C-alpha cells in the first residue's frame, strides 16, 4: 500500500517538475500592461495534455482536456500557480486567455532547502538543531504569506520578508564559510576545518 502511494506521489511530482521546466513563461501584454514571466491558460492546458498523453506513466490511458484542466485547477488551489490579475483571485482555473505565473513558493523552498543542506555541512553536531528551527521559521513565513495573500496581495509582504531574508542570511553565511574555511576535506575524505 505504501509503495503504491509513494509511486503515485513520485509520478505526480514528475508531472509538476516537467511542467515547471517545460512551459516557457514569457512577456505578455494585456489591458495595455506588460506582464513578465507568465503563461496563457490555454497554453498550459495544451502543454499538460500533450505531456500526459505521451508520458510513459500514463501509457494506454485516455487523457482528456478536462482532466488537464482539473490538474491545473489543483495547481491553482495549492498555490503552485497564481493569476497575474490578483483581482480575479479565488476564481476557478478556466481554459481561456487568462494569464498565470508560478508562485515564488517553489523557488523560495528550493533556495531555502539547498542553503540549509550546505549550512548543515558546516555546523557542528550540537548546532544542527538550528536546521529544524530554520524550517519552522520558513513554514511560519509561508503560512503568513498565504494568509496575507488571501486577504489582499499587498499583505503578503510580511510573509515574504520572513522567508526571504533568513534565506539570504544563510546564503551569505554559506558563502563566508566557503571562502574562509579549508574545503579540501570535501575531496580528500578528511574532517572539516572550522566547524561552528
UniProtKB/TrEMBL annotation:
Tell me, which GO biological process terms does this entry list?
Answer: intracellular signal transduction
Q: Which Pfam families match?
A: DEP, MAPEG
Report whether Cell membrane shows up as a keyword of the record: no
Give UniProt keywords alphabetically.
Membrane, Transmembrane, Transmembrane helix
**SMART domains linked:** DEP
Tell me a GO cellular component.
membrane
Q: Which InterPro entries match?
A: DEP_dom, MAPEG-like_dom_sf, Membr-assoc_MAPEG, WH-like_DNA-bd_sf, WH_DNA-bd_sf
| DEP domain sequence ranges | 19-104
Give the transmembrane ranges. Answer: 130-152, 158-179
- In terms of superkingdom, the source organism counts as Eukaryota
Principal cellular location given in the protein's record = membrane
Compartment(s) of residence: Membrane
Q: What is this protein called?
A: DEP domain-containing protein
Q: Write down the species.
A: Oppiella nova
Amino acid at each position: 500500500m505504501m509503495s503504491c502511494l509513494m509511486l503515485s506521489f513520485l509520478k505526480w511530482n514528475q508531472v509538476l517538475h516537467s511542467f515547471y521546466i517545460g512551459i516557457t513563461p514569457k512577456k505578455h501584454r494585456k489591458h495595455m500592461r506588460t506582464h513578465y514571466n507568465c503563461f496563457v491558460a490555454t497554453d498550459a492546458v495544451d502543454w499538460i495534455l500533450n505531456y500526459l498523453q505521451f508520458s510513459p506513466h500514463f501509457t494506454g490511458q485516455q487523457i482528456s482536456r478536462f482532466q488537464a484542466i482539473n490538474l491545473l485547477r489543483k495547481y491553482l488551489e495549492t498555490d503552485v500557480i497564481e493569476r497575474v490579475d490578483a483581482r480575479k483571485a479565488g476564481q476557478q482555473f478556466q481554459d481561456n486567455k487568462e494569464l498565470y505565473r508560478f508562485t515564488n513558493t517553489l523557488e523560495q523552498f528550493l533556495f531555502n532547502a539547498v542553503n540549509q543542506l550546505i549550512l548543515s555541512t558546516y555546523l557542528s553536531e550540537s548546532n544542527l538543531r538550528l536546521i529544524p528551527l530554520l524550517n519552522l521559521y520558513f513554514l511560519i513565513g509561508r503560512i503568513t504569506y498565504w494568509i496575507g495573500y488571501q486577504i489582499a496581495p499587498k499583505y503578503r509582504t510580511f510573509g515574504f520578508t520572513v522567508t526571504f531574508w533568513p534565506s539570504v542570511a544563510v546564503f551569505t553565511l554559506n558563502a563566508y564559510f566557503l571562502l574562509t574555511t579549508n574545503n579540501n576535506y570535501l575531496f580528500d575524505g578528511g574532517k572539516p576545518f572550522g566547524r561552528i
